[in-house]
Structures are given as C-alpha cells and as structure tokens.
Automatic annotation (TrEMBL):
EC number(s) given by UniProt: 2.6.1.66
Annotated organism of origin: Leptothoe spongobia TAU-MAC 1115
Name the UniProt record assigns to this protein: Valine--pyruvate transaminase
Keyword set includes Transferase: yes
Superkingdom: Bacteria
Length: 420
C-alpha cells in the first residue's frame, strides 16, 4: 500500500542529516565484512561497568520498594515523576544556588523530543502567517536540529569565525557576533554546549552575550554533554541559567539512552507550553527510567560517577586520537578541533582535494568508518567549502582500534593530497 502523504508526512518520513549516512553505514556493516571494519561513527555511549552497575543497583532498589507498582502500573503527571522532579530541583538548587520549583521542570522522553516540542511551539508559522525562525548561532551543530521542525525553512544557522593554530594543527569555532542577528522574526535560539559534533564549548561570556541578544525569546541550551551529568566537559564550564534560558539535560550519555529521559529546566510559562504539547503527543515519558534516575540523582551517585568514570573514559580516548594524529598525519593543513567536551573528535582537512562524502567512501576501503561532516550544518545557507572538509570521529571504540583507524586515515590523507 502507498498511502498519500500529507506535507508533514512527506517531511517526517524522510531521514534527515546524519541518519541518512547511518543507513549507508548499517548497510556497509551488514555487508558480510563487518568484522573487518573499525566503526568510528557510533553515537551510542560505551557501556562502562561502573555506570551499568549504578543503573542495576537503582533498578534493584526500585524492584524492592513499595513504589514499584505506582511507577510501572499507573499513569502519572505529564510534567514527570514527582521524586525525579524533586531530586533535580534539590540538586540544582544546592549546586548552583537556584530556587527552582516543580513548575520549572519538565521530563520528556529523551531530550530530542524536547527540541521537537520547542521547535514546533516557538518556531514555524504564527497564526498571522509570520515565519518564526529557529536560530542556531554557531554552525556546525547537532544534526538532529535539521529534522525537529515541521517547517525546515524555519531553521537558520550562522557561520562561525575560526581560531586556527596553524603550527599546532588545532582550531576552534567562535560565534560570529558581527553576523548573528536576533530579530522580531526569531522564534527561539538553540545550540548544544558541549557541542555534538565538534566538542566546542561556548564560553560563559559567549552564552551570556547570546542570551542578552535574545532577551525576548527562549534560548534552549542543549546540555546533553554538560555538567553535572554526564559531565562530558574537558574544560571548565558552568551552566548559564538566565530567565529566558531553558536548560535541556539528557541522561543518554550518562548511561541511560534506552530509557529516554530528557529534562527541561526553565521559566514556568515556557515549561507549561511544552508540557501541554507533550500531553497531546504522548502523555508522558516512561516512568521506570524516571524512577531509577530519581534514585541516582538524589543520592549524588550520578554526578559523582560522571566525574570519576564517564568523563575520564572519553578524555583518555581523545588523547589517543590527538597523539596518533600528531604522530602520523602528513604535512598537509589538517586541524583538530580543541578538545573541550562530548564523545567525538572533529577533524578539518583544509583544501581536501575531494569532498567529505568521497573521503568517507575512500576510507571505507581502508576498513574504517567515520562520519562525513556536511550533515552537521543544518540551517546554514551559505555555500561554504569548509562544510565539505570536516569529519566526526567517535570516541566509543577501544583505544587500540582508534589508534589503528587514525593511522589508516593518515595514510589515506597522504594519498589523496598527493594525488590532488
Ligand atoms: C547534542 C545532542 N542533543 C540531543 C541528543 C538527543 O539525545 P536524547 O537521547 O536525550 O534524545 C543528542 C544525541 O546524541 C545530542 O548529541
């Protein structure tokens, strides 16, 4: 059967951004030679034994408690499971000197859904037919933002400036405040900090400047990698919680992606709008995941394990990529983004004689899969050659295999620049 699709049906039945590449990767891995590939494309976090044990212990506690039936056998509040909301407000109030109340918090089924709720509440067409834009102040950013709006034309991203250390082969993106404009057409602002795919962390000052520029609209800070959990920041950073800021937390990189727990913290009026949208969409997030998260947050164990196990794990992997690139890359203009956070490294091959998709295909011939960078520029309308010269490398494989993969990547780099 081929049902006639609506405009939204068309839009949502297509895979956007990196999901389309993932389809190619899955087909490659299923092609029979999967054992031979080193797959550095994965966004799935590593199962760390200490982290798995924490979730196992919280589950055992839940099973043994009288709350079990209440958690899994009954519907609950759309805002979220009360003990989780209490655990978050207590943690954030103590940690950051805030005075959050339950009405400042919403639990969503994963944080991706939070950005969908926001994108379609504050972005898109108003009842008067005016297009409200979703502003991504620094491109590249999370590829998922390309698919969150029912109106893709609403997403507008800004090209950054580049700080390049040529001798050290390192670089860093900065928001270009000479270009960034927030107008009456802006619906809301959205960015990830630390950033997937680059690992960039906007400085506290940059964030405050963006929040001030956007004083009359919500600013969603996607904190999927931020402290206090999963604390995948390798540089100092503090959550910026201004009145118009909605802080989006995810427990996925803290070892719970299967349970789909996202958390929004923001002003009560904004949270209320998102909560109603969520009630219409799916009633509420799974309560089992929320209940074990409540225990891990209330005891302080999640914040602790984030600092002692999750962060060092990925930081060590990043060090392997850095040292292997430094040792093996040929004398070409290659630049690694500064290691400031996330579970990825971001490599820029300036003046690459082929585009990122062709390099990705060529590297597959060497038995290595990385992710071509071009899908990570959703909403950027400028024709910028840099978009086709970058790659995302996941830190989720073993150190040994990462090292082998980077050596092969260096060989291919030498070959393609030699031919170019
Ligand atoms: C920056 C960023 N935001 C949001 C998400 C979605 O996470 P969740 O599993 O909470 O929906 C991801 C997932 O990789 C991410 O990297």
């Amino acid at each position: 059967m081929a049902p006639i699709l609506t405009q939204f049906g068309q839009q949502m039945s297509h895979l956007t951004g990196v999901r389309a590449i993932m389809k190619d990767i899955i087909e490659t891995l299923q092609s029979g030679q999967s054992a031979e590939f080193i797959n550095l494309s994965a966004g799935n976090p590593v199962i760390l034994p200490e982290v798995e044990q924490l979730w196992r212990d919280c589950t055992a506690d839940l099973l043994a408690s009288s709350d079990y039936g209440e958690v899994v056998c009954r519907y609950g509040s759309s805002r979220g499971y009360e003990p989780l909301i209490d655990a978050i407000s207590t943690d954030f109030n103590q940690r950051y000197g805030l005075s959050l109340k339950p009405e400042n918090i919403l639990i969503t089924p994963g944080s991706q859904s939070l950005y969908f709720l926001a994108a379609n509440s504050f972005g898109g067409y108003t009842t008067e037919g005016q297009l409200k834009e979703i502003i991504l102040p620094l491109s590249p950013d999370y590829t998922g933002y390309g698919g969150v709006s029912l109106y893709p034309e609403a997403v507008r991203a800004y090209q950054p400036t580049l700080e390049v250390d040529t001798a050290a082969h390192r670089f860093k993106y900065r928001p270009d405040f000479s270009q960034l404009t927030i107008t009456e057409q802006t619906g809301f602002v959205l960015f990830s900090r630390p950033c997937n795919p680059t690992g960039n962390v906007l400085s506290d000052d940059e964030v405050k400047r963006i929040a001030t520029l956007a004083a009359n609209v919500p600013v969603f800070i996607d904190s999927a990698y931020a402290p206090p959990f999963p604390a995948l920041n390798f540089t100092e950073m503090t959550p910026v919680l201004a009145p118009n800021v909605v802080h989006g937390i995810s427990l996925s990189k803290a070892g719970l992606p299967g349970e789909r727990v996202g958390i929004a913290i923001g002003d009560a009026a904004t949270i209320r709008i998102l909560e109603s949208f969520q009630t219409n969409l799916c009633i509420h997030s799974s309560r089992y995941g929320q209940a074990i998260a409540a225990k891990a947050i209330a005891s302080g164990a999640l914040a602790e394990i984030s600092k002692t196990a999750i962060r060092p794990h990925y930081q060590q992997k990043f060090a392997v990529i850095e040292s292997t690139l430094d040792e093996t890359m040929p004398d070409v203009p290659w630049y690694l983004h500064r290691a400031e956070g996330s579970i990825f490294a971001w490599l820029w091959l300036q003046d690459l004689p082929m585009d990122d998709q062709a390099f990705y295909q060529a590297l597959k011939q060497y038995g290595v899969i990385i992710v071509p960078g071009s899908p990570f520029f959703p909403g950027l309308r400028n024709d910028w050659e840099h978009k086709h010269q970058c790659f995302r490398i996941s830190l989720t494989d073993t150190a040994e295999r990462i090292e082998i993969a980077i050596r092969r990547l260096a060989n291919l780099t030498e070959e393609v620049y030699g031919q170019g």
